[in-house]
């Protein structure tokens, strides 16, 4: 697998394409992290980090995992860049059932509010890193939670990070959270929309996990319906 990873990383550097490595279950993440950090050492020595790793805020060790890898990259050398995709996570039920089956402590935060606090603290860590080393740090705030987006935007302003610098971007799944994506883009922030690609058998489980296990998606859908209804009513009133 190593020659394949090298070929992939080398090609991404040549084309200037960010390679965001996804996170999985807690029992596979250590191997994923090891390979991703090794790729950072090899390929993240240009002006912009090409290899990004994913960190899950729904884990009790979410911030600890992020800070650990930041320290590793710092130890690898000042020229090595670090990119992070911050997500809440979508394997809650599987993680808890696996922990119960294997008899180890539940790795998932006890409440949704704890996850929100964990996620926002991780965003703060990365934004401080970006403010400190703009040319060697990058982050995508991948969330459908409106409060977290507002928190990130306010923190960027406080730290003096310009939205168009490119080191901080926001991300949502295509077709979801348009009530967040559209105002962000209109305000000058960089927004990515994730487009799942593949067969129905591959894509639908991915989308259903985010709809079923991410309350922000469901709340956001209700919020979008409310905004659309208000806009529709205002236009109907205009034509009366």
Automatic annotation (TrEMBL):
Q: Which UniProt keywords apply?
A: FAD, Flavoprotein, Oxidoreductase, Proline metabolism
Keyword Oxidoreductase listed = yes
Q: Which InterPro entries match?
A: FAD-linked_oxidoreductase-like (IPR029041), Proline_DH_dom (IPR002872), Proline_oxidase (IPR015659)
- Which Enzyme Commission numbers does its entry carry? 1.5.5.2
User: Which GO biological-process labels does this protein carry?
Assistant: L-proline catabolic process to L-glutamate
Top-level taxon of the source organism: Eukaryota
Give, as one word, the top-level EC class.
oxidoreductase
Residue ranges of the Proline dehydrogenase domain? Answer: 4-218
Q: Which SUPFAM superfamilies match?
A: FAD-linked oxidoreductase
User: Cofactor(s) for this protein?
Assistant: FAD
Would I find Oxidoreductase among this entry's keywords? yes
Q: Which GO terms describe its cellular component?
A: mitochondrion
Catalysed reactions listed for this entry: trans-4-hydroxy-L-proline + a quinone = (3R,5S)-1-pyrroline-3-hydroxy-5-carboxylate + a quinol + H(+); L-proline + a quinone = (S)-1-pyrroline-5-carboxylate + a quinol + H(+)
Molecular function terms from GO:
FAD binding; proline dehydrogenase activity
Pfam families associated with the record: Pro_dh
Family per record: Belongs to the proline oxidase family.
What does the record give as the function of this protein? Answer: Converts proline to delta-1-pyrroline-5-carboxylate.
* Protein's recorded name: Proline dehydrogenase
What is the native source organism of this protein?
Cherax quadricarinatus (Australian red claw crayfish)
């Amino acid at each position: 697998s190593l020659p394949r990873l090298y070929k992939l990383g080398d090609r991404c550097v040549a084309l200037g394409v960010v390679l965001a490595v996804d996170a999985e279950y807690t029992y596979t993440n250590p191997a994923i992290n090891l390979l991703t950090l090794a790729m950072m050492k090899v390929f993240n020595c240009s002006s912009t980090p090409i290899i990004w790793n994913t960190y899950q805020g729904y884990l009790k060790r979410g911030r600890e995992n992020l800070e650990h890898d930041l320290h590793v990259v710092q130890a690898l050398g000042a020229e090595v860049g670090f990119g992070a995709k911050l997500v809440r996570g979508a394997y809650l039920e599987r993680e808890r059932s696996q922990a119960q089956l294997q008899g180890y402590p539940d790795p998932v935060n006890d409440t949704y509010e704890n996850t929100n606090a964990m996620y926002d603290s991780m965003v703060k860590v990365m934004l401080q890193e970006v403010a400190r080393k703009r040319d060697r740090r990058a982050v995508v705030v991948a969330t459908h939670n409106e409060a977290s987006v507002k928190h990130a935007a306010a923190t960027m302003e406080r730290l003096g990070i310009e939205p168009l610098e490119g080191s901080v971007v926001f991300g949502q799944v295509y077709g979801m959270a348009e009530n967040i994506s559209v105002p962000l883009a209109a305000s000058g922030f960089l927004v990515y929309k994730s487009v799942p690609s593949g067969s129905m058998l591959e894509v639908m489980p991915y989308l259903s996990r985010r709809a079923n296990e991410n309350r922000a998606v469901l709340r956001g859908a209700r919020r979008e319906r409310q905004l659309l209804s208000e806009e529709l009513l205002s236009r109907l009133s205009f034509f009366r």
